[in-house]
Write a structure and sequence with these properties.
189 residues, mainly beta, 4-stranded antiparallel sheet
Length: 189
């Protein structure tokens, strides 16, 4: 699986830089958006998957699935600055609107862990129990926040449901049945 983060430069005149996580290559490919040429290959932890840019544009956050961590990567040179704990097989990361928290899905662990972006400490762990669904089918992957930031929606993979979470209380409010093997989702503005 290859995941892509297309990142705009600070100015409209600058070309984008494309970051691609190479799950089996244990690396991030850095591609010049203007020429579509690979300009760097950064080694990272085993099985990199989900990837997201920090709000200030200085760091990438990469789910290193076999490392059970989210690696913080310096965007200037590809150095790994930190390993944040993320549970078994973290598949996706998403920042809250204020940038204070990083929510990381732990696909095999069946949880979402919430990491404080300043202290790098795990502040909460959310588990799931979908009625009439075997726990081994509950594989949290993609996470998205509603535009008002009050709710998080989590795709639960083979459970064929999306969980709705109250961001403030960390409680699962509902499970919405959807199609088979829900891996990603989007919310309109």
């Amino acid at each position: 699986m290859i995941l892509i983060a297309l990142l705009a430069g600070a100015s409209p005149a600058l070309a984008e830089t494309i970051y691609v996580s190479n799950e089996r290559g244990h690396s991030i490919s850095v591609i010049d958006g203007a020429t579509l040429k690979t300009v760097a290959e950064w080694p990272v932890g085993n099985r990199p998957r989900g990837i997201i840019l920090s709000r200030d544009g200085t760091r990438l956050y990469v789910c290193a699935s076999d490392e059970h961590s989210v690696q913080v990567i310096d965007r200037k040179d590809g150095r790994i600055l930190a390993d944040l704990p993320a549970g078994d097989d973290p598949g996706h990361v998403e920042f809250t609107a204020d940038g204070r928290e990083l929510w990381a899905s732990s696909e095999i662990g069946g949880t979402v862990q919430i990491v404080d972006t300043k202290s790098h400490a795990v502040t909460a762990k959310i588990g799931f129990a979908v009625p009439r669904v075997s726990p081994d089918k509950i594989l949290p992957v993609a996470i998205r926040f509603t535009p008002d930031g009050a709710r998080a929606l989590v795709a639960l993979g083979r459970a064929n449901h999306v969980a709705v979470i109250d961001v403030k209380t960390r409680q699962v409010l509902a499970y919405i049945p959807v199609g088979m093997r829900v891996w990603h989702l989007a919310i309109s503005a």
